[in-house]
Design brief:
Oligomer: single chain
Helix content: 25-40%
Shape: globular
Structural class: alpha+beta
Number of strands: 28
Distance between the termini: 55 Å
Number of helices: 19
């Protein structure tokens, strides 16, 4: 099936004299996760992970993806002609390097310019011009061969009440305009869906797990224009906007609208978010300023209302995860539990806690060797029955009306090997070391990543993913610009109010995987003659499985931190449990 689709695409490419065609994972907004209409990379390659790029030529079909998906991609590509190029590995060219080296001079490279970022398009332009290679960006070739392509989502939007958001949209737009004036810009084109949802205090269901609405926005010094399917807006949203405050235009009008921008305007864009097509439609002569959307940083620093609500969501989420752990520990080996039924159970328990909208991402439920696949996605074919031994990794989260959660726990289902306990304890120590850090204001996550990763490095171990990411408020579970990553020296300075995950791991292919993840709130600590110190407050509230800990491998300060954390878990969660669950939790949060 995949090979047949690729052959159809190649025939079309031949007709249009296109040597290489690029298919990214993105939608028209450079979203990390996309709606069904936009899953073109999955359609053409069969790879279902969230990140990757495919390049098709007449001779080659190649997928690039990162370390989270190496094992998954190998499995999913095994029956097709698509080759896997492992990003970041030795002697593996990047997408840009491959295209620049393999595409002949004077030929043509194609892609749908709405799905390629302006930044990527600019690099391609620069590199390909050296070989007189032209770019064709106005055609979506997949659409011509995708006979049963899903329709664009028509899900309705809803207003996020100010009791949850903590700030009205007019105030947020005023802040954006103030930033524009300070930076001498007059028009701001905004295309990232989470930025738009945050700015206008609307949420929706156009992308599963991400409560956003397909839309574009243009903010000028005196106008706010929202490009959206108006049928998605209910009366409450329209009333909140007011006819004179927000002007509504059709979703697809953005491409013609930008052509009308006056040459006197100074346009602010984020080239990593805006599409190549929109940038090319801005009239020549208009000054374009490239920089991070101001709303991205505003959004990352949660206000006091968002923080209070997020903490409430995490209490309910912690109750759900604790109840799940109790259920799992007391039923393993007695009833049949599979990866799928375990994933269903945690969702069921979250739904019971109230204010639940949906999962914040597809639950990763991996037993034994499946846990070693970093972003494992269980299917009916791969679904494995849990046994009363070994490790079970559960990475899950919820979208609630008052917050977004993301938590990973790895559970001992019975007897463990000394190696499994050693690996688990090392990962726990890594998470604790980063959780307990104090640092001077001005530091970003690049410099703190080593605190967690270094614990594994000392043992000659590593994990092939970032240590943490920002989390949205009733928004995308992966949110910039804050995070802990070795590959991003330019990540944002960690500011008060930012929420970031802390999730080191270890994965032994064919055997087991371990990841432990808490969300942490960045708060101000001591201020003295050396400056403002910062620290982290854990807001995820659920036990770390002591059955998998080798206490002899832990240092005294690490044990003290874990004991203090577990006391907080017991004190917070126990009032919502049954007597049996409370007695059980007392044992699983005991001091070690």
């Amino acid at each position: 099936m995949i090979n047949n689709r690729i052959e159809k695409l190649r025939s079309l490419m031949k007709e249009k004299d296109i040597f290489a065609y690029i298919i990214p994972s993105a939608d028209y907004h450079q979203s990390e996760y996309v709606g069904e209409f936009f899953k073109g990379r999955e359609f053409i390659s069969g790879f279902t992970g969230s990140a990757g790029t495919v390049v098709i030529t007449q001779e080659k079909a190649i997928l690039w993806t990162d370390g989270r998906y190496f094992l998954q991609a190998e499995e999913e590509l095994s029956t097709s002609c698509v080759e896997l190029y492992k990003m970041g590995q030795e002697n593996v060219p990047t997408t840009f390097e491959y295209i620049e080296n393999e595409v002949p001079s004077g030929s043509k490279v194609g892609f749908d310019g709405r799905t390629i970022s302006a930044a990527m398009g600019a690099i391609l332009e620069l590199n390909l011009a050296k070989k007189n290679i032209t770019i064709s960006y106005e055609d979506d070739l997949l659409n011509e061969i995708w006979e049963d392509r899903p329709a664009l989502s028509d899900a309705k939007a809803f207003l996020l009440d100010i009791k949850y958001s903590g700030e009205g949209f007019t105030s947020k737009i005023a802040r954006v305009r103030e930033w524009m004036r300070e930076n001498n810009t007059t028009t701001h084109i905004l295309t990232s869906l989470d930025d738009i949802a945050w700015l206008f205090n609307i949420r929706g269901g156009d992308i599963k797990y991400n409560p956003v609405v397909l839309s574009y926005a243009v903010i000028t010094l005196d106008k706010a224009i929202l490009f959206i399917d108006e049928n998605k807006l209910n009366d409450e949203i329209k009333t909140s906007f007011g006819e004179e405050v927000v002007e509504i235009k059709n979703y697809f009008e953005i491409y013609e609208f930008v052509k009308t921008i006056n040459k006197e305007e100074i346009v602010l864009i984020d080239s990593n978010k805006i599409s190549y097509s929109i940038l090319k439609n801005i009239p020549a002569g208009v000054k374009v300023v490239n920089g991070m959307n101001p709303s991205t940083k505003f959004k990352a620093q949660k206000n006091s209302v968002e923080i209070e609500n997020t903490k409430k969501a995490h209490i309910r989420d912690g109750v759900a995860v604790t109840k799940f752990m109790y259920w799992l520990k007391n039923n393993i080996g007695k009833i049949e539990i599979t990866e799928l039924s375990a994933a269903d159970k945690i969702t069921e328990l979250r739904r019971e806690q109230g204010k639940f909208i949906e999962e914040s991402f597809g639950t990763i439920a991996g037993y034994a060797s499946n846990g070693a696949i970093i972003h494992y996605s269980v299917t009916k074919e791969s679904n494995t029955t849990l046994k009363d031994r070994g490790l079970f990794l559960l990475d899950s989260g919820g979208q609630y009306f008052d917050g977004t959660t993301d938590i990973t726990r790895t559970f001992a289902l019975g007897e463990l090997t000394e190696e499994e306990k050693y690996h688990f304890t090392t990962v726990a120590r890594a998470m604790i070391r980063l959780s307990d850090v104090k640092f001077l204001h001005g530091v970003n996550g690049y410099y703190l990543d080593i605190l967690a990763r270094g614990i594994l490095w000392n043992e000659g171990l590593n994990y092939n993913h970032g240590t943490g990411h920002g989390v949205g408020h009733v928004l995308n579970v992966h949110e910039g610009p804050n995070g802990f990553r070795l590959d991003n020296k330019e990540s944002a300075i960690l500011e008060e109010g930012m929420i970031t995950t802390n999730e080191p791991g270890f994965y032994k292919a064919g055997s087991h995987g371990i990841r432990l993840e808490n969300e942490m709130l960045c708060v101000k600590g001591e201020k003295n003659e050396f400056g403002q110190f910062m620290e982290f407050e854990p807001i995820t509230i659920a036990p770390i499985d002591l059955d998998a800990i080798n206490v002899e491998l832990m240092k005294e300060d690490e044990k003290a931190y874990l004991n203090e954390y577990h006391k907080m878990v017991f004190d917070t969660v126990s009032p919502f449990l049954t007597t049996e669950e409370t007695n059980w939790l007392k044992e699983y949060t005991r001091a070690i």
